[in-house]
Structures are given as C-alpha cells and as structure tokens.
Amino acid sequence: MHDLGRRRFLARGVSLAGLLAGPRRLAAQTAPTSAGPADPRLIEDLVAANRILVDQGVLDGYGHVSARHDRDPTRYLMSRSIAPELVTAADIMEYDLDSDPVDARGRGSYLERFIHGELYKARPDVKAVVHSHSPSVIPFGVTGVPLRPLYHMSAFLGAGVPVFDIRTASGEMTDMLVRNPALGRALAQTLGARAVALMRGHGNVVVGASLPQVVFRGVYTEVNARLQAQAMALSATVTYLDPEEARKAEDSIAPTLPRPWELWKRKALAK
Ligand SMILES: [Zn+2]
Predict the structure, then answer these.
(1) 187: domain CATH number?
(2) Distance 133 CA to ligand 1 centre (A)
(3) pTM, two decimal places
(4) Could you report the per-residue pLDDT of 134-157, keeping only the tens digit for each?
C-alpha cells in the first residue's frame, strides 16, 4: 500500500510538473514579435541576391540566401520555401535567431533555416548568409583536397576553408541536412571567423558583411573551385595566393564590389 501511495504521489508530481511547464511550452510556441518593416531597399537586394545566385550557377532549385534585419540584429529575413529564382518581395519572411518565423501565415520554411539563425547568433559581424549546393565545391568537401585561393578574385578564401562533416558533428548517420539548431551551431563552430565552410557531400555556407559581399563571395567560391580543379588537372604543382597576397588583394577588391553588384542586380531584376 505504501508503495502504491508513493507511486500515486510521484505520478501526481509528474503531472503537476507537466502543468507547471504548460505555460512555458505555450510561450515557446508563440510566434516571436516582429522588428517592424525592413528597409524596402534591403528586401529588393535580397530578392535580387536570390536571382543573381541562380544566374551565376551558385543556387539552382535549391539553396537559400538571407539578410540580417536592418532594424533588429536578432531577426533575419529569408524567402519562404520556394525556388530562389521565383522569389519576390512578397515571399520574404522574418525569423528570430532560433529560426522561428514571426508571421508564417501558412507559408512553409526552408528545412535548413537553422544554418542562418545559428550563424547570425555566432557571428555578430555577419549581415548576410548563403547556403548553396554550389556544384564545383563538392569535390573539395569529399576528397581532403583543400579549397585554396587561386587568384585575386577569391582572396577572401585566404584564411582557409574548413570542411563541416555532419556525421562527426551529429555522431550518427543523418539525411545530410542541417535540420536543427544543434547542427547549425556545430556548422557555425566549424566556420569560426572565416568566410566560407564546405559541407561534406552537400555544399557550402558563405557569410558576408552585406548582401553584395556575400553574393560576390558565393560566386567567386564557385569559380575558384572550378579553376582549381582545372589547374590541378593540368599540373601537380599549383601556385596559390600567399596569405599576405590574399590579405592585400582582398583589401583592394573590397571597394570595387558595387561594380559587379549593380550589373548583376540590374540583369536579375529585369527578368
Ligand atoms: Zn542544403
């Protein structure tokens, strides 16, 4: 009898704990508050970034690009779950850094949105993020051959390009997708302070201080990977940028970013 009473007490205790946890769970399910309307120019740039990255062969029917909200660093903006080439201003949604949508209104979210939220948490300097399956980088994520800056346009790779292995990060076999915050955090840890990380058997993640910069980096990461594979096929000896050359080249190219951006944006939005 005594044991039975104790079990009942414990059972009641569990249900009481459940009741107490109830309001907290409800609060967690409540959508985050909005930071207010983003700058329309930022929205226009984000729409353009989606289309440019498709035009340049970085994104296809998959992949995504986001921007940190201009009014609140704890919010970011990204399209609902559609192919990047189809994105319009009406598709842009607001998320908090846990990647919960502010106002979903039935719109679907990208499964791998946690990449963006966790990178914005880990890197206050980052204002824009691209996740792509950029085809030319894939071999460098699976062979142990490091991706290195081959020419001045990709000098931003000079700090090194780490490879994120989701199998090591999760400790088990996954479906390869960064589909929860823990995997997003592990990816952010692999990236560290760098501009680009490869994702083994999947693609890459690219970060920048602005949408024009992250688009530039996404484009030239893809081009560098293609050129590096070509150079390695031609010769066993390839000369890469020295780290000091990379730093100097990156500084020289930084002020010229508006040049390709204006061209790419005009073409992308004219369609
Ligand atoms: Zn992906």
Answers:
(1) 3.40.225.10
(2) 6
(3) 0.89
(4) 999 999 999 999 999 999 999 999
